[in-house]
Amino acid sequence: MINKSVVFLLAALAALPAFAGQRVSVRPRSMGDSSDQPIIREIIEMERQAKEASIRRDAEFSRRTLSDDYVDITPLGQVHTKEDTISARKSGQLRYETINVTDMVVRVYGDTAIVTARADVKGHQLGEDFSGPYRYTRVWVRRAGHWEAVSYQATVTQ
């Protein structure tokens, strides 16, 4: 019998071409249900789209994919809402030049998916450089058949 972690790893690796040009690794979790693999691929794709939308400052992506009660907690502990995020993207006050995602782990609990990952970023906010390594957690919830981000939290790492 094939170990479920190996099945997860193979399925995750099949989804990695979506991250062409990025350094992304998806680590298998110790337990998992092979029926979660299609959901994991969907979430990996949502994460890829979120990264690209951040670089392009795509406010429409935020409007479509952030829940109305979305909460973003910054590395400095500031709390931002969906509207704060959309406004920051529209105004250009938050600018990402690059985002390289690695060490991504997706855990699925029914209609909820939790993503943890490392992101090495280069960018500026209000003219201040915030480049460096971060770890983040994003929570996705499936509502009416569509995935919405309900929470995001980033922490500066060394």
What's the SSE blueprint?
Blueprint: H1 4-15, H2 37-56, H3 59-65, E1 66-73, E2 79-81, H4 82-91, E3 94-109, E4 112-125, E5 128-129, E6 132-143, E7 146-156
Parallel strand pairs: 1-7
Antiparallel strand pairs: 1-2, 3-4, 4-5, 4-6, 6-7
Helix pairs in contact: 1-2, 3-4
What does this 3D model show about the protein?
This protein has a single domain, classed as Nuclear Transport Factor 2, Chain: A. The protein has 4 helices and 7 strands. Strands 1, 2, 3, 4, 5, 6 and 7 form a 7-stranded mixed beta sheet that branches. The N terminus is likely disordered.
* Main pleated-sheet profile: 7 strands, mixed
Q: Give the class-level CATH name.
A: Alpha Beta
Low-confidence stretches: 1-31
- What is the rounded Rg? 16 Å
Please count the helical segments: 4
Keywords:
alpha+beta, 158 residues, 4 helices, disordered N terminus, 31% helix, Nuclear Transport Factor 2, Chain: A, 7 strands
Structure, briefly:
It is built from four helices and seven strands. The protein is of the alpha+beta class and 158 residues long.
